[in-house]
Design a protein that fits this description.
Structural Genomics Hypothetical 15.5 Kd Protein In mrcA-pckA Intergenic Region, Chain A, 5-stranded antiparallel beta sheet, 2 helices, tRNA-binding, tRNA binding, RqcP, rRNA binding
Length: about 90
């Protein structure tokens, strides 16, 4: 599945266009490599996503085309969350 679609379906980012912009700005890494919106992701991949003042590291657990809102959190496991300090 494309990275931008995964971010939207898993509800990490609410809109696919926003997911595409975030990826194309270089704020998403897949397995340590900066990824574009069209990068294919698979189960077991590790993502690092920068959301404003926060970095989130997570692992992909499930991939499906459609998901109910309440099941979206089962698509990934958060490995680490950290705030970015402004000096």
């Amino acid at each position: 599945m494309r990275l931008d679609k995964y971010l939207k379906v898993s509800r990490l980012i609410k809109r696919r266009t926003m997911a595409k912009e975030v990826a194309d700005q270089g704020r998403v890494k897949v397995n340590g490599q900066t990824a574009k919106a069209g990068t294919n992701v698979k189960i077991g991949d590790k993502l690092d996503v920068q959301f404003g003042q926060k970095n989130v590291a997570l692992q992909i657990d499930r991939i499906e085309e459609k998901v109910k809102k309440e099941d979206a959190a089962t698509f990934y496991t958060i490995l680490k969350e950290e705030r970015i300090e402004n000096n």
